[in-house]
UniProtKB/TrEMBL annotation:
Molecular function in Gene Ontology: protein-folding chaperone binding
Entry keyword Protein transport: no
TPR repeat positions: 4-37
Xref: CDD domains: p23_CS_SGT1_like
SUPFAM superfamilies noted in UniProt: HSP20-like chaperones, TPR-like
Biased segments, Basic and acidic residues type: 324-344
Gene3D superfamilies found in the cross-reference section: 2.60.40.790, Tetratricopeptide repeat domain (1.25.40.10)
Key word Ligase present: no
Family to which the UniProt record says this protein belongs: Belongs to the SGT1 family.
Domain SGS: 316-419
Protein name: Similar to Protein SUGT1 homolog acc. no. Q55ED0
Length: 419
């Protein structure tokens, strides 16, 4: 008898290894046996999202919100609302996505909060391009979705079968154990591929890319791709490619987000006898891409981290964030650690910081400041300058009308330069 906890543990490993089809399959098996495991719906939603199955990702995220709400797990409700918002944004329901992000922002902490801010920044850029009466701005969803949680299914059922044999004594009974097939979970999600039905990006297909001043060209070297069964979706910040291979498996290649935005209307692809070629037109001609994929981190300001005092304890610098102060030393360590990851490793995915700088911390702040709006830049520079590098704010409405006080870390004393 399969153990749902064991299946879920294997699914988690597959998710961490970026084998999303395998993760989806294993989580589906686990949920068929324990359909009230909210964390498994949340992780399957992430797997669906990274496989570009956004409707399925939304269905799982809404189940997770519903179940976490029943248990009163505030932080996890926020994490599920975040996933719900991402799926809605990918489906073009921008008003609903913004509604979910606002709910998530009040509940999450740590890297989930950074992720919410990143996705909201991208969402705001998209909504600025919409007309005021565009239907995509409408908010139709409810805070707690009204979903029906599936029932658990029995894994195995014993059925008695009476058989007769030539030499069998009259009245003698023969019993067979006939296993009843295990159905898939009744969750409202799209059909799930089997564990061998798809492979992770780059598993069996070699790919390479190059760039010119105007274009980024991606080539997948694979023969005889059936044009009628291939799906290539090009968006301004993402690309999704899928097609069946001769081996019977499906190839899935997903880039989300790009290193920089592209011009979809002037992008194109070709399916040839020996390769698939995708030409992405840069929205900023002349800008050099350091990689195909970028990060979901939102832009803010380019400032320096305040120096540490000569003590064993690590300072926690004051911040205007509603969640409290931030440990910038820990952030620096996390960024450095991220920069040392091997290419292809995948963790959470949305909060990684990519930079063309040798120092990942400086690269992080440079990237934040570069694309930030004017109010964000002013808030960051004003708060950092007036506080002597001890506070950092991105909220101009909060710091624009008052002086930001110097707030040294515990154990330190603020002094003027002539003291």
């Amino acid at each position: 008898m399969a153990d749902p906890t064991t299946l879920a543990a294997s699914a988690q490993k597959a998710l961490e290894a970026s084998d999303y089809p395998q993760a989806i399959s294993l989580y589906t098996q686990a949920l068929s046996l324990n359909p009230v495991a909210a964390d498994w719906y949340l992780n399957r939603s992430i797997s669906h999202q990274r496989s570009a199955s956004y409707s399925s990702a939304l269905a799982d995220a809404e189940l997770a919100v519903h179940l976490f709400h029943q248990r009163g797990q505030r932080a996890k409700i926020g994490a599920a609302q975040l996933r719900r918002g991402i799926a809605l944004q990918k489906l073009g329901k921008l008003g609903d996505a913004d509604f979910c992000y606002k709910k998530a922002e009040k509940m999450v902490e740590g890297k989930d909060k950074t992720t919410v801010e990143s996705w909201r920044a991208m969402l705001n850029q998209a909504m600025e391009k919409l007309e005021i009466d565009d239907p995509r701005r409408e908010v139709m969803c409810e805070e707690i979705p009204g979903v029906v949680v599936p029932k658990a299914v029995k894994q195995e059922k014993k059925v008695e079968v009476r058989e007769e044999k030539g030499k069998q004594k009259e009245g003698e009974e023969v019993k067979k154990v006939v296993p009843t097939p295990t159905p898939a979970a009744a969750a409202p999600v799209a059909a799930v591929p089997s564990s061998t039905g798809a492979i992770a990006p780059g598993g069996k297909v070699r790919h390479e890319w190059y760039q010119t001043n105007e274009d980024v060209v991606l080539t997948l070297y694979v023969k005889n791709v059936p044009k009628d069964k291939a799906t290539i979706d090009i968006h301004d910040t993402s690309l999704s490619i899928s097609f069946p291979l001769a081996t019977g498996t499906d190839f899935i290649f997903d880039l989300d987000p790009f290193w920089a935005a592209i011009d979809v209307s002037n992008s194109s692809y070709k399916i040839l006898g020996t390769k698939v070629e995708v030409k992405l037109r840069k929205s900023e001609p002349g800008r050099k891409w350091a990689d195909l994929e970028g990060s979901h981190t939102a832009p803010a300001a380019s400032v320096s981290v305040a120096p540490k005092p000569a003590t064993e304890s690590k300072p926690v610098y004051p911040s205007s964030s509603k969640t409290g102060s931030k440990d910038w030393d820990k952030l620096a360590a996390d960024l450095t650690k991220k920069s040392e990851k091997k290419e292809g490793e995948d963790g959470e995915g949305e909060d990684g910081y990519d930079s063309d700088e040798a120092d990942p911390v400086n690269g992080f702040f440079k990237k934040l400041y570069k694309d930030a709006d004017e109010d964000t830049r002013r808030a960051m520079m004003k708060s950092f300058t007036e506080s002597g590098g001890t506070a950092l704010s991105t909220n101009w409405a909060e710091v624009g009308s008052k002086k930001v006080e110097i707030s040294p870390p515990d154990g330190m004393t603020a002094k003027s330069w002539n003291e």
